[in-house]
Design goal:
There is one protein chain. With 250 residues, the protein is mostly helical. 70% of the residues lie in helices and 0% in strands. The radius of gyration is 19 Å and the shape is flat. It starts with a helix and ends with a helix.
Length: 250
Amino acid sequence: MKPAAALAAVFAAGALASRLLAGHTPAHFSIDRAQPVPVATAWGGFGMLTFLLLALTIGCAFLPYVLLLRRPPPLRITLATVVAVLVAGAWFTPLFSSDIYAYAAYGEMARTGLNPYLHHVLPASDRIFTAAAWQWPQLPACVYGEGFVAIARGISTLFAGAPVWVQLSAFRILAMAALPVCLALCGAIAKDERQRRFSGVFLTCNPIVIWSAIEGHNDALMIAAVLAAIAIARRFPFASIVTAASAVAI
């Protein structure tokens, strides 16, 4: 099996195994499983078992990743690989970070006129706030830039009235979509074909970076902004400065 296909296969196998393991979740964690997007928090021994499955998946994924670094394929192959891995890995359950719930809450605050940079007693009548409160009993004030809050507000507005899992999935899809953008920007920045291939694989096929995007973390958005600034620096210096600054706003 070629390394590109092997990378996707490892994440697919890990996701399938996680689904099978989820069928044996202890009954006292059933309320966590019933959340819009399940997150393993304080799951004790069973939580450790699910985390070890993720660690094994990521560890095994590093084997084809190293092979890809030794012989990086053309960007179109890398793009197909990244998309396949993200689609396969997105089925892994549960997640191990509740960040997307905080993102959704901050977006909902901004949409409903609350300042996400202040502490509030959130109304229990709002489904987003209720879901976030289960994951974050003491939701901290927003630590992200106003650019990301604007993105979160846009998602909250676009999917207002939709099931909570739809809004949460929107943040995950956005994070995953940032990786192909980063790949294209790596291609635009690189000086030659060899560097183009290597930089694309190095950044976007890294199993830990991939899992970060699958969980919906906004880091890839910030990286995309920085890479975009580098890509346009020579032809549009001022626009490059503004674009780089937008990374801080995330």
